[in-house]
Structure formats: C-alpha cells, structure tokens
Design goal:
By secondary structure, this protein is mainly α. It has six helices and six strands. A hairpin with a 2-residue loop joins strand 5 and strand 6 (155-156). The model has no long low-confidence stretch (mean pLDDT 91).
Amino acid sequence: MTGTRIDPATLPGRPCSAASALEIVGDRWALLAVREVLLGNHRFSQIARGTGAPRDRLAARLKSLVEAGVLERRPPEEGGRYDGYHLTDAGRDLGPVIRALLTWGNRWAVTAPPVRILHHDHPLEPVTVCTTCGERVHADDLTREVTDPAWAEEGRAR
C-alpha cells in the first residue's frame, strides 16, 4: 500500500492491526464506497447513489481512502475529466472482507438477503484457507504470538 500506514502503538488500547485497519476503513461510508467500486461504480455520483451517503461525508471518505492508498483517481485523458475512483492492490484486498461481511449480514443482520454472491451456480460460502499450507483454517488450530514487548495476551505487560 502506498498510502499512510498507522503505527498500532499510537492508538488507544492494545496494539492491533485490526484497530489500525479500522482507522482507515472502519467508517460505514468508507466500506460502502469500496463495495461500490468493487461493483464497478467509479464515478462519484454512482458511489453516492449506491451508498446513500451524504455527499460531503462521501467526498471526505473518498479523499481519505485515496490518501490511505485504498483507492486511486486516474488522471483524465487529454482534455477529459478524471476517470473516477479505482481500487489499488490494497483496495482489491478488501474484496474478501466485504464478501465475508455480506455473508455474515445475510445470515445474522437481515430478515431476507437483498443480495447473494454466487459462485458458479450456487451461493458463495467463503472460508479461510492458509496460503502457506493450503489447509482450511479452523479456530481450534490458531495460536497467537504477541510481538509487541509492551503487551501480553492478558493485557499490558508489567
């Protein structure tokens, strides 16, 4: 990612990459803007219509996503206007996160799913697979390694 990175130690509470990620994309309008670009909506008006965000808030979120390196604005062709917003590698890496949120939302947050993602001819049921060994990841197989010497799993180290 070419944008600004956050030192987890500068945030309140336990240093955590999830907390740092939420500083960048944890706002409702930020993730919905990324969703719209993932769906192929690149123009501000399309993103505004798809998110329902207030225009001033959306403009601020899009600006912060560009500054963070999640989105980019492509320069205009000669004499034209900007080619809208496009995902960077960092933005494309949010695709599985948004698909997982959609799946969770379909299961736990809505009375009837308004959208489903299909994989070939069936609903997608995403799982996490370790790219190193190729195995499906199960919570029971995970351990944590605290790498910040100021913290232990129980909390702040003495």
